[in-house]
Design brief:
It is a single chain. By secondary structure, this protein is α/β, with parallel strands linked by helices. The protein has one domain: 3-Layer(aba) Sandwich (Rossmann fold). The chain contains eight helices and twelve strands. The strands form three sheets. A seven-stranded parallel sheet has the order 1-12-11-8-2-3-7, covered by helices on one side. Helix 1 packs across helix 2 and helix 2 packs parallel to helix 3. The protein starts with a strand and ends with a helix. The relative contact order is 0.19.
């Protein structure tokens, strides 16, 4: 895992967008795994103008996790946020968008494998060290699945509450691409931004491989870029 440090989230977002654009050809099939956290949404702002200028007709998009909710006409929160902030502004055709839902989760690993696997995955390091919705304790060989939310675990509840917003109820379950498919991605970009990610970043850099820290499996990945801003790096550089 290669680590790169940036002065702030803006500089980091620009560099991640450049990295993604550098590895997607305009007309060859490429599979991109996306997240919907605050920082990925900022990265998409930099990607949208470039993607509108070029067709990139071979790029297909998958979502790393999904949060089923009931909020007006929204039933899948991750898809709604990526759709509104990326797919629609970048004019991505729906036939190149592979949504994660209660039906597709059953066969998504097989679908991705048949399509050639994930070429580049954009993931966020969460404050407890999880990636996508593979929570601490997830097997490194876990497949894509629906997980029941342990509402007695305050760390999990707080993490999900940050994702859904404090005006919505934390769901009873979430969907996630499994660790097995993620670690098979040809290239992974893992972003860590902000004070809340400082402890997780420090632990990731120093702790041994452990399923209690799902992101630690990425130390074994041959092409993983850990992108860290100054706030998330304060424990390392302090």
């Amino acid at each position: 895992m290669q680590s790169r440090f940036f002065s702030d989230r803006d500089e980091l977002s620009i560099e991640v967008a450049k990295l993604i654009l550098s590895v997607i050809p305009e007309d060859t099939r490429v599979n991109v795994l996306l997240s919907a956290g605050t920082l990925p949404l900022q990265i998409y702002e930099y990607l949208v103008p470039k993607l509108k200028m070029h067709q990139y007709s071979g790029v297909h998009y998958y979502l790393a996790d999904e949060i089923p909710i009931s909020a007006g006409d929204i039933s899948m929160l991750t898809y709604a946020r990526v759709r509104d902030n990326f797919f629609i502004p970048a004019q991505i055709p729906t036939d190149r968008i592979h949504a994660l839902n209660m039906n597709s989760i059953k066969n998504i690993d097989e679908e991705i494998a048949k399509a050639g696997g994930i070429d580049i995955a954009l993931l966020s390091l969460e404050s407890d060290g999880h990636i996508a919705a593979n929570l601490p304790g997830s097997s490194f060989e876990s497949e894509s699945r629906e997980l029941t939310v342990d509402k007695n675990n305050q760390d999990i509840v707080n993490s999900l509450q940050d994702r859904v917003g404090h005006d919505l109820v934390v769901p009873d379950s979430v969907l996630t691409i499994g660790m097995k498919t993620i670690k098979q991605a040809k290239r992974i970009v893992l972003v860590a931004v902000g004070d809340k990610k400082a402890n997780a970043t420090l632990y990731l850099m120093r702790a041994p491989l452990s399923e209690s820290l799902p992101a630690s499996i990425l130390h074994l990945h041959g092409n993983c870029h850990l992108m860290i801003d100054a706030a998330a790096a304060r424990g390392i550089q302090g």
